Amino acid sequence: MTRTFLIKLGYLLLEVLTFAIIVFPIVIAFAGIFEVFGMRMPADSGVNNPQNPYQATLVDYIPQIIAFLTAFFVMRKWIFKRSFTEMGLTWKNLLPDLTKGFGLSVILVVAGFGVLFVLQKLDYTGTLFNFEQFSGLLVLFLFQSWSEEIMSRGFLLATIAHYFGDVAGLLVSAFLFSLLHFFNPDFAWIGGTNIFLAGIALGLLYLKYRNLWVCTGFHWGWNFVQAGFFDFNVSGFDVFSFIRFKPLAPAWLSGGTFGFEGSILAVLFLLAFSVYYWRQVDFSTKKLPES
């Protein structure tokens, strides 16, 4: 290892440690406030037990977002002098880019569902519409996705790329993103591969558009359409769904209890998507969008 590499690694670890030191007290403070009102973090609802998705959004994801944005502000203004736009936090083209990302994910999920349906690997069991659950999950997955994109792409990818380049930021952040799901129910090699590829796809969208909104929209649509509409589990977690389907054997094709991300089809779709967007990204540019 060269001296320059070690210096860069040291600065990178210092940024990660500083971010954690700022974030943790804020999250703990919110936990104490919610405890006074009889609500605990993480909430017994949302992705892993969707009794009240609105409460889960309030208790679990909004505090995370506030903590992450506060850490960004403190580090940007007083410590490392990094801009919000460098981390992808710009309000320019918010709605168009969010919609674009959502639409891209819908195309992939609907295509995967269509193939499995034609192959008769999904057993239709009925419909059940509950407006509170359906709308609540739409909101929950938006804030969950934004929270994870702030951390995984806005902070980790951008910070690693600042010191070691975009490719290193892309690959390492995708690997860390997949590790975050390692203890999910029914996690296996296909699911792990898909989550890593999803991290690559989301990172490429971030690098292509140099903001968080397209990748947040993609993440949002990917989770919501799988779970809230087509009854796939989301990375192993079962949530309310409008249309009810039961995955049939073999699990490597239907996804089984891990959801669409447990299917080899998702590997093929995400791999093709990533190859396409890899060719679209100019890894040599550091051009940032206007604030």
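Above is the first protein from milestone M3; the second protein from the same milestone is given next.
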Amino acid sequence: MEGQPRVMVCPRCGQPISYVERQRRGNQVYYYAVHYEGYERGPDGRVRKRVRKCYLGPAEYIEVSRTHSDLGLTLKGLMEEGRERDYMEALVKSVRDRIRGGRLTAEGARELATALSRFSEELKELARELSEYAAEEAAHKETAKEAVNETVAAKKALSGH
């Protein structure tokens, strides 16, 4: 489906999402996937859009994050962009802070060093895959943009403008 926009699929029900609704309650933000399901006539006789909403979760998990505060993590909801990056940065900072503050045991340091050595090659491979994916996505968007521009130019030529 080259040149077609990607349809966001609801992680709750698997149906296409018409749009995402953001609701603020107090100091928290919550997200809902809104599914457009056509029109219906209300009791007053007026025609209304019929929608169904699926709860997607909060922007941040405030209470749960408190139990991870020693790691510097604020757990985020699935709609928050960049949460993987934020988690990795927070963990790196947390470990460095523990080393500098003398709050990491020698055994804990050895375990983390072993784990990082194990993941080192995997992370390099993942970085390579991410770079390739980003390049493919950029090329895909450029191709789609060119297709739209060609269609607009063709319509203008046909209409004589």
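Note on the second protein: Residues 8-59 form one domain.
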